């Protein structure tokens, strides 16, 4: 398979997702597909990956992948860019906010026999959550250190480190 054909398969997959033609996108995935997603302990099989994609599809409308870089090396295609959309559906228990989002993404897709057989996906999950209004709080150890530092500033006394 040529470099251009390999690249075209991957770009067709993302374009079909953006065009909201999921059946067309999923048809480009091999039956023995494996998805490696950042933040997930175990790889996803084809059905799990479809479910993951569907949850994003239902939560975010007007989705667009914009790739600043597309690099093909053998049977692998690396795409790097952004995903923009509007949060109009429930997502991981969060009701729709109506907020637009833009997240940095990097993907590697491996092609065999004209199908995507393996996918590695990395997206800015923390940036996404911040754009949706989710605030992350420090854990107890860090929180106590922050509190001690704030109190020390009030009384102008140095704080001993936790380490």
UniProtKB/TrEMBL annotation:
Top-level lineage group: Bacteria
GO biological process, one term: polyketide metabolic process
Listed Pfam families: SnoaL (PF07366)
Record-linked SUPFAM superfamilies: NTF2-like (SSF54427)
InterPro entries per UniProt: Cyclase_SnoaL-like, NTF2-like_dom_sf
Gene3D superfamilies (UniProt xref): 3.10.450.50
Protein name: Ester cyclase
């Amino acid at each position: 398979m040529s470099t251009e054909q390999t690249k075209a398969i991957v770009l067709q997959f993302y374009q079909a997702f953006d065009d909201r033609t999921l059946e067309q996108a999923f048809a480009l995935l091999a039956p023995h597909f494996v998805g490696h997603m950042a933040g997930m302990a175990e790889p996803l099989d084809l059905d799990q990956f479809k479910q993951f994609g569907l949850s994003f599809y239902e939560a975010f409308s007007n989705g667009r992948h914009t790739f600043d870089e597309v690099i093909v090396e053998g049977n692998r295609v690396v795409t790097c860019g952004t995903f923009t959309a509007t949060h109009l559906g429930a997502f991981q228990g969060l009701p729709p906010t109506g907020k637009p989002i833009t997240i940095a993404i990097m993907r590697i897709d491996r092609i065999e026999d004209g199908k995507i057989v393996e996918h590695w996906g990395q997206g800015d999950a923390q940036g996404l959550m911040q754009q949706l209004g989710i605030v992350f709080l420090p854990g107890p150890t860090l929180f106590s250190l922050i509190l001690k530092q704030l109190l020390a500033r009030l009384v102008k006394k140095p704080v001993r480190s936790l380490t």
